[in-house]
């Protein structure tokens, strides 16, 4: 089968013929239809410092996907050939305290699909049946391909109650924009998103934010005044990983404000902990998705009319992966999709 492989310990990716994966105990074999390109995949292509530590070559990349089950292992129940599925890309141990307590997203021994084991940038991929999410209501294939990052957005956005609240989102990348759409759909009063990219701020406007603010020319305090907020934001969603973004967010939260943090900083940085203490601000780190409560919420949100189509800006055949990766790395894009049937 064809697969997109990190074949060498150097920058680059290679489209190669590799053996079709074999179905192990408790697994299913999935024919891949569409995949989404993630920032993690860009790091692996560039083979930066993180990738050098995280991956071992050769490796088939990819963890954002939708496909059709073609084979199930003996004993696997409730899944069948023909099911349209996406996959939870965090493979857990099932034995640690958190796993046994049902808090599977907190497993300390998580293995990442397309990072710690061969992934979904291929014509076929295997996955434990316990990691499979079946799409039981109609869903656009491009949207189904990005359920993984959509889950990050939903997990972050729904960490705290949103109804009637004023929301600040720092970072208008695809996940930040999806989080903005979720917040608006879930009943937030005002939703402000910040970035320095005019292109991405325009995308954010398409999902109905109250204000898309360019922080290269305006401050968060300026935006707060434009929205008529007198006491600050109630909920903050930090999606950028930028030190200045979190510091400015903390400075513009109301007393008792709550912040969910998904953005990964490149290095440690100082924040005003005196302000966090005296303003009684809650900080919560977010990683991945709750298994499978977040997935249920994603499907219900889409069934209820949430529209993610503005977030998807690029569609390519897997054979044109170089152009697709260049598009994803260029910054003037939302989510970029690879079609494995073209």
Automatic annotation (TrEMBL):
Keywords: Cytoplasm, Metal-binding, NAD, Oxidoreductase, Zinc
Catalytic activity annotation: 2-deoxy-scyllo-inosamine + NAD(+) = 3-amino-2,3-dideoxy-scyllo-inosose + NADH + H(+); 2-deoxy-scyllo-inosamine + NADP(+) = 3-amino-2,3-dideoxy-scyllo-inosose + NADPH + H(+); L-threonine + NAD(+) = (2S)-2-amino-3-oxobutanoate + NADH + H(+)
Function: Catalyzes the NAD(+)-dependent oxidation of L-threonine to 2-amino-3-ketobutyrate. Catalyzes the oxidation of 2-deoxy-scyllo-inosamine (DOIA) with NAD(+) or NADP(+), forming 3-amino-2,3-dideoxy-scyllo-inosose (amino-DOI).
Gene Ontology terms, MF aspect: L-threonine 3-dehydrogenase activity
This protein's name: L-threonine 3-dehydrogenase
Alphabetical list of PROSITE patterns matching this protein: ADH_ZINC (PS00059)
Pathway it works in: Amino-acid degradation; L-threonine degradation via oxydo-reductase pathway; glycine from L-threonine: step 1/2; Metabolic intermediate biosynthesis; 2-deoxystreptamine biosynthesis; 2-deoxystreptamine from D-glucose 6-phosphate: step 3/4
Protein residues bound to Zn(2+) 2: 93, 96, 99, 107
Binding site for Zn(2+) 1: 38, 63-64
Residues reported to bind NAD(+): 175, 195, 200, 262-264, 286-287
Compartment(s): Cytoplasm
Record InterPro entries: ADH-like_C, ADH-like_N, ADH_Zn_CS, ER, GroES-like_sf, L-Threonine_3-DHase, NAD(P)-bd_dom_sf, Zn_alcohol_dh
Enzyme Commission number: 1.1.1.103
